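Friendly challenge for the regulars: who can give me the structure tokens for this chain first? No prize, just bragging rights.
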Amino acid sequence: MAAQVAIKKACMGVDCPNEAGTLQCPTCLKIGKTSTFCAQDCFKRSWGEHKTVHKAASGGTLHNPFPSFKFTGSLRPVYPLSPRRPIPDHIAKPPWSEDGEPKYNLFARNKISILDKAGQDAMRKVCRLSREVLDAVAREVRPGVTTDYLDEVCHNACIERNAYPSPLNYMNFPKSICTSANEVICHGIPDARVLLDGDILNLDVSLYHNGHHGDLNETYYVGSSALNAANIHLVETTRECLRLAIETVKPGLPFRDIGNTIEKHAKANKCAVITTYCGHGINTLFHCAPNIPHYAKNKAVGTAKPGMCFTIEPMISAGTHRDKTWPDNWTSVTQDGARTAQFEHTLLVTEDGCEVLTARLEDSPGGKAEMPKEEGEAIVKVDGKEGAKVNGAGSKA
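First reply, four minutes later:
Bragging rights claimed.
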């Protein structure tokens, strides 16, 4: 789950280009929804269309909860959301499980931790479990299933491993996994939308186990129609951006240099790097220092040292790098509706390189797709050779 550099809230007024203020619809509040507007006049002007949201929500019929919002692409949310899934009492929970607040100590969040052997082993364990859960969800990706069903699969797989799904109620995020399709950059909320043949879908899984967090994501092709030249070019460019970035990680690497590697490859392939979100430190805290920007000429502070854990998770667009956030205050999309892809690993810096704690397993679903030899034809190969250690740090885990 990406760390957010900036938070933008769009006004839900009809054809309103402004950012939202603090004014909220009182009827929406009564039925458990959040609808924010820039001003009272805008709210009054939009009332005729906005009130249809109340009728749809109370009736329980499938609907778009933001009918007046200017969507940038073809994707629409499909509500109502399913109820929050319960966590058994025996599973250890992070601080935000009840009220949504991380309650991080500011000093601890800004300090780059060096993990001891026990901490490193705990990260290996939770990251291995996170990989297992992602693979379990990915095996269910196909046309005709809803992203809410994928959330159910993720939630149950976490519980089976005595783990808490870290996104659940984190800053009030309502689900256990982020499902980001097509033009959604990140933080897509699972809902009743059915996956279509031709979609691309990012699954972002994070687990909390034994006091530590694991975090990874991958982008998958949905159905045979997704294996077209445009999708493959975008997805495989993004996959390669992450691979090249990981190859540079070793003690002494300035964190700012990671973005140079990613943007160089993205630009060479006529793609853009999303700049609003970044990789992050991860250990007993879900998001902490260091920040890992994915774009060139950034001003990230610090250098890699053995024992540090952090994520690299480039988000790459086939169009603009500029983003826009839906009124749910989570779903981030490209401003031009162009498709995006993302891949993420959690890394542990070693004495001579890094260990990919969330590396793919030999039977992990998905994997690299080669460009079509002819129009309409694609060759799919599972990238089973990806190792858990690079830069001379050992063999495949």
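The two ends are 23 Å apart (CA to CA). The first helix runs from residue 26 to 30. Your move, everyone else.
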